[in-house]
Each structure stands twice: as structure tokens, then as C-alpha cells.
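ugh ok fine here u go
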Amino acid sequence: MADQQLNGLKVAILATDGVEQIELLQPREALKNAGAITKVVSPKSGKIKGWNHTKWGEEIPVELELSTAKPEDFDALLLPGGVQNPDKLRMEPAAVQFVKSFFQAGKPVAAICHAPWMVLEAGEAKQRRITSWPSLKTDLKNAGAEWVDEEMVRDKNLVSSRKPDDIPAFIRGMIELFSEADKQTRKAA
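structure:
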């Protein structure tokens, strides 16, 4: 993976209470190991409460409040899932606009589990091939997406996966996408 190092790539991780902690912590660790700089961005300050499969999990420090976060300060976006996390975030206009800004700028986005709700809410699911937790299938199809049941799907600047079991494939797809975007950004600079 030497040619896919993300040295200095700035990645926003948008999350709130109820985030499936493994879908935040493992991808964040992989990003850090590849040299990326990550920031947990949330509508709330302090800490968010993770969800550990069937019960409350760890507290995760918020590194940047959404009210002061600027999409232009980041090169890529990670959207972890869990049911509660994206369901709360999609009710926050600032969170939806934050996600939409990454798509409008053509920046890479990685979404797992229920996080594609944020892609849908931002108006960016139409005509995309995408996967998610199976309960989002109808929502995504109704939004004009082609929903598929695969462990990892890449469509333009979006990588999506279904569930925690898919995290290894999700990480591979995310690192590859973010690396390609980083190389294009460095060439343009």
C-alpha cells in the first residue's frame, strides 16, 4: 500500500451519538496508519456516545464542532453508520449541507451501513450505484439509486459498504479512493 499513502490528507468524520463505534474507530485507525489527519466533527461538543452492536459503547471525543467546521478545510469525508447516528444527523440542516458540500466539490466520500441516508438526504443518491444496510434499500431506490447487495461499492467519488463485517473491504475501497483523489489534488496544486 506504499503508493496509497495519505500523508497529510485531511479527513472529516461526521458523527453524533449512536454512531456504530467500530465503523468509526477501525476506518479512522486505518486512515491514520496511512498518514491521514482525521477530525471527528459533530453537531455537539465534548464527546459522542458510541454504539457497540446492541448496547452503548465508548465515548468518542469530538475534535471539531459542526458549527465551526468548514468543508473546504478537508480533502475527504467519512460517514460511519449505526441506526441512530445518521438518523439524527439527517435532521440537522448543517450536517446535510456539510455532506452536500463534499459532493459539490467532487471530494471523496466513504459511507457505511446506515450512513448512505446522509448521501440520500444531501440529494446525492440519484443515478448512483450504492450499497448500505439492507433496510435502506427502498429509500435509496426511491431516491433514484441503483441499490446492490455487495460488501463494497465504488461509484465515482463515493465508496459504500453494508455493515461492520464489510469493514476490511470498506477500508480498502476508502483508502484507494482517497489516495486517488489525493494524487489528483497534489497534481493540480
